[in-house]
Predict the 3D structure of the following.
Amino acid sequence: MSQEHKAGFVNIVGNPNVGKSTLMNDLVGERVSIITSKAQTTRHRIMGIVNTPEYQIVFSDTPGVLKPKYKLQESMLNFSEGALTDADVLIYVTDVVEDPQKNADYLAKVARETVPVLLVINKIDLLKNQDELVTIVNKWKETLPNAEIFPTSAQEHFNVDNLMNRIVELLPVNPPYFGKDALTDKPARFFVTEIIREKILLNYDKEVPYSVEVIVEKFEEKDNAIHIMAVIYVERDSQKGIIIGKGGSLIKKVGIEARKDIETFFGKSVYLELFVKVEPNWRNRENKLRSFGYLE
């Protein structure tokens, strides 16, 4: 008799900038979650799905946990809190520089979890020697005594396979939740907005990228090409000027970089048009947060 099919939800949580998205992309094997070195690039829960004939793993990467400063962050924190309640396996990601006591309230919730918790200590390639790692592991054992600890380097793909094997072992026996050809539950235009937002994060500094939202207004796919029209919303006229840049130079650069990545992602040629519009104070307006998909 063949082995029974396993399927489950594996949620990846942790503070900003510890490498959650890099880890998830390594586990899923596709570039599903955007990765930049700026904090707070993941605003929604993103599901990346790994399918084999024997199992289906539904990964979700959550926004980094932080104390909410405005309504948008409240909705982001709700996604992270929700991640604790509906997981079959919880992966808590930290790194070698983070203080184990950072965000103690959230850690206390993780410590009370009844589902298996895998603690990933990422970026161990930054350590000088084994002793440093032993010290860090011991600190985390005190904080999360029930967790299984996996020192990794997601960027170097170190120890990620062992982590993956353990996840598969812990999966419950279930039929698949999604079609076996699914890579993610998000629609195509979601990835377009994520790629454009990533380019904005990389090309502009200070607070500008955080007051930006990207909405795809047109996504026309033909056999070998896609025509995309996207609007970049900002909160103030001054930000609009910054996004566009002198003589349109910056918005053009964002467009070129985004188009390349979108073409790679879909394997088709892309015609991308970008527009910038001002939508005052959208981060605190519930109707706007709802239309941008942050509130149910």
User: Anything to note?
Assistant: The longest strand covers residues 225-234.
